[in-house]
Amino acid sequence: MSSAFQFVAPTGTLVYVGITQDEISFKHPVLHRPEINLLASRNALPKDFPYIIGLIESGTIQTDPWITHRTRFEEVVRDFDSFTRPENRVLKAVIELV
């Protein structure tokens, strides 16, 4: 996890997904100098998915507000860069395979 910083572009974002009991360390300049954003997300377990999917299917959880942008698979190359620009306020971009 510490070596992942070398793969992040300047001003890019590194997301750690999952939980580890190990200590993670890195030298501050590898994060600060290129102005990298570091995010962490707890990984869900397989047993969590049926419950959440059920809540979505029943309408208890509304996902429409999360989807701010859509593109067709054929247009991903054209649109992807716009999804990474903060000024476009992309929360969740969906690639449609229809």
Order of the strands making up the biggest sheet: 1-2
**Cα distance spanning the termini:** 36 Å
Report the biggest beta sheet as strand number plus sense, adding barrel if it closes: 2 strands, parallel
Mean pLDDT: 89
Structural class, by secondary structure, is: alpha/beta
User: Compute the gyration radius: what is it?
Assistant: 17 Å
**How much helical structure, as a percent, in the residues?**
10-25%
Portion in strands:
15-25%
Multimeric status of the protein = single chain
| Total separate domains | 2
Unreliable stretches covering 5 or more consecutive residues = none
**Number of helices, where a helix is a run of at least 4 consecutive DSSP H or I residues:** 3
Give helix and strand order, one letter per element, not per position.
EHEHEHE
Principal-axes shape call: flat
Would you report the number of β strands? 4
Keywords:
alpha/beta; two-stranded parallel sheet
Folded structure, characterized:
There is one protein chain. The protein has 98 residues and is of the alpha/beta class. It folds into 2 domains: 1-45, no CATH class; 59-98, no CATH class. 24% of the residues lie in helices and 18% in strands. It has 3 helices and 4 strands. The chain has helices spanning 28-32, 48-58, 76-83; strands spanning 13-17, 37-41, 69-72, 93-96. The strands form 2 sheets. Strands 1-2 form a two-stranded parallel sheet. A two-stranded parallel ribbon has the order 3-4. β1, α1 (28-32) and β2 form a beta-alpha-beta unit. The chain is flat. The relative contact order is 0.13. The model has no long low-confidence stretch (mean pLDDT 89).
